[in-house]
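Project standup — Tuesday

K.O.: blocked on the structure for the chain from last sprint. Re-posting the sequence here as requested.
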Amino acid sequence: MKKYIALFAGLAFAGLVSAQSNVSKPMSFHIEKEVIPPRLTIVGTPKFVDQDQNDVIDANEKCYIRFEIRNDGRGDAYNCVAHLSATGTTQGLILRDMPLPIIERNTSRTIEVPINATAGTKTGEIQVSLEIDEPNGYGPDPVSMKIGTHKIKTPFVEVASYKISGNKGGQLKRREEFILQIIVQNTDQGTAENVQLDLNLPENVNWTDGAEKHLTIGTLRPNEKRTYEYSLMANQKAADGTNIEIALSESKGRYSKNAAIPLQFDKYVGSTISLTVARQDEEVEIQKASLLSDVDVDIPSNTGKHNNNTFALIIANEHYSQVAAVPFAINDGQIFREYCIRTLGINKDHIDYRPNATLNEINDGLDWLDMMTHTYVEENPQVIVYYAGHGIPDEADKTSYLLPVDGNGTNVNSGLKLDDLYARLGALPATKVTVFMDACFSGSKREQGMLASGTRGVALKAKSGIPRGNMVVFSAAQGDETAYPHRDQQHGMFTYFLLKKIQETRGNVDLKTLGDYITKQVSQKSADINKKKQTPCVTPSATVGEEWQTWTLK
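H.V.: unblocked you, prediction finished:
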C-alpha cells in the first residue's frame, strides 16, 4: 500500500513540475461588478426658506435650502450626500454636509439642507452652491443661488430732532415762557421694548404746564417716532449755555442715546438741530424725523464771488400786540437771512434783520438802506427787501399797507403805505431792487379767517401798489387772496418755495425762472392742501421793462 502511495505522490510532483515548465505567462482572474445605476435630477429650482420670510439670512436665524430630488434610473440611490458651499459674506454662517436617505428608483424626495446663522452674521450677500454626491458619480448637476445676509437686528432710540421756540420775537429770554419740542425715534431695524424717557431741567429752569418728567414710551418699532412738547420758563438766575438733559433707555440697556439741549438766552432760536440717523437699509426704510423744514437744512454754501455790494433788509413780523400772530414768520426771516449769507454770499454786515419790527423800526431799516446805498454808490449797489407779516387794506380806497407789530388792524394810519415803501425804495441809488413780499393785503390772516375783529369779515381786493425805479416785486398773493402757511414745512407757502428754488439752484437762477417756479408751485400746493387759490405774481416797474427777467440774486 505504501508503495502505491509513494508512486502516486511522485507522479503528481512530476506533473506539477512539468506543468510549470510549460507555462509562458502568469495566470490572472477578473471579477465583473454589476452596477444598476440611479439617475438623479433636481426638480425645478431649489427654494431658500427662512423663519421670518424676508428672504434674507438674518443673524441668529435658522434657514434651509429646500429642493426635490428625483431618481429616474434603474437602480436605487444609496449613500448620497448633499453638500452646501458658499462664497461672499459668509461670516457667522454654519453650513454642514447632510446625508440623504435611500432614493428608490422612480421616486422623488423633498430634502431640506440647513443653514444656521449666528450672532456674528454680517450684512451682505452669499453665493450658495448645492451639490449632490452619489458614490458612483450619478448625481445631478450642481445648482447655485444668491442669498442676502443681514447682521443682528437691534434698535437704536435717540432724540432725532428738537426745537426751541421763544415766545416773543423768536428770542429765548429769561422770565418768558418757551416751548421745547422733541422727537424720539427708533432709527434702526430692531424693535425697542420698554423705552423710558427722563427729562431733567437745569437749575433755575422750571415747568409751566405740569408735564411729567418721566415717561414710559413703551414699544418703538423700526422707524417709529413719538413727539413731545414741554412748556418751560427760566428765571433770571438761569445760567447761559446750560443744558436740558434727556435720558433714554430700552430693555436691552445698550441701544439708546442721551441728548443734551443747550439753552442760549437773548438769542434767536427756532429750528435747532436734526440729528443723524444711525443707519438705513433695504428692509425698513428709516426716514429721519425732523422738526425742521427741508429748506432749513443743507443750505448751500456760496462758492463764487461775494456780494459785497448787495444790501438786504429783512423784516419778519410774527407776534403782534393787537392782532393775530403770523405763523412761522420768524422762521421765514431767520432762514432767508441764512440763505442771503451762506448761499448768496452777502456780507452779514450788509444785512439788517428786524424780527417783530415796529413802525419806527421799519422806517429805521429803510433809512439804513438809504445810507448804505449812498455810501457804496460807486460800487453799483443792489438791494434785496424781504417782508413776512400782515398787510391790511384801506377799506375806503383799497390801497395796501404793511402792518408793523404795534399796528392796529383796523387803522391804516398805524401802518406803512405800500406805495410809500415803493417810492422810498425806488429813490435809492441802486442798480437793482428786488422785493419779496410774503403778505396779503385783503384783510385775511395767514390762516383762515379775518385779521381783526370789527372788520367786515369779507376779504377785499386790495390794490397791490406800484413799483418805482429799478424795482421788481414778488408778491405772495393777489387781490382778495390769502397768503397761506405751509404747515408741514413751518414756513409761509410763498417763502418755502422761494427758498426751495434758491436751495436747488444754489442761488444761480434768474428772476424770470424763479418767479415762474414760485407761481406754479404755490398755486398747486395751495389748491391741494388749502382748497383755496393763492396766486403769486411778479410786478416790475415801468423803468426796468423786461430787463428784470435776466437779473439774478448773486
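K.O.: great, moving the ticket to review. DSSP finds six helices and 31 strands in the chain. The longest helix spans residues 2-21.
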